[in-house]
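pinging the channel bc i need a second pair of eyes. not urgent but kinda urgent?? the chain im working w is below, pasted from the shared doc
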Amino acid sequence: MSTTETGVLLQAALHYANLGWPVLPLHTPREGVCDCAQKTDCVSPGKHPRTLKGLDDASTDEAVIRRWWSMWPHANVAIDLARSGLIDIAPDSLEWHAEFIARGLPDTLTFVSGGGGGHSHYLYARPSDVPLVRICESGKFDILTAGYAVVPPSLHASGRRYHWR
């Protein structure tokens, strides 16, 4: 990864923080293998926090974010969904993507996972009366108002980048 590419990760993290979305540096996959201590045994390459307290460390503080990306310039970027006030609706397949579209999901910020297979993420503002939950049905969909979302331009274990639609 070039200096320009690592600068893009930092700039993305700063941009999200400026939107009021606390960010968190994640580990990075390299040729499908996570750069964490687990390496090939990692069950979530490039999708877990680098910091000691994980999601609790997510921040919008520019100095903190710059320090993180100076230590880990290749770090993937995640946003804290609860503190960002967001809902992430993520159909896990083309079939479920079509089902959600057929049900009339309104237009919103949308990004595509680097994993392929039609895995898109739809970010909506969370109404104040919606609880903080994680509803996941593997192979079908995730509806998240808690936890974090890996966001563009993070690198997926497939070698492809997450990107905005």
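so The chain has a mean pLDDT of 91. and Residues 101 and 163 are 19 Å apart (CA to CA). — does that match what u expected or am i reading it wrong
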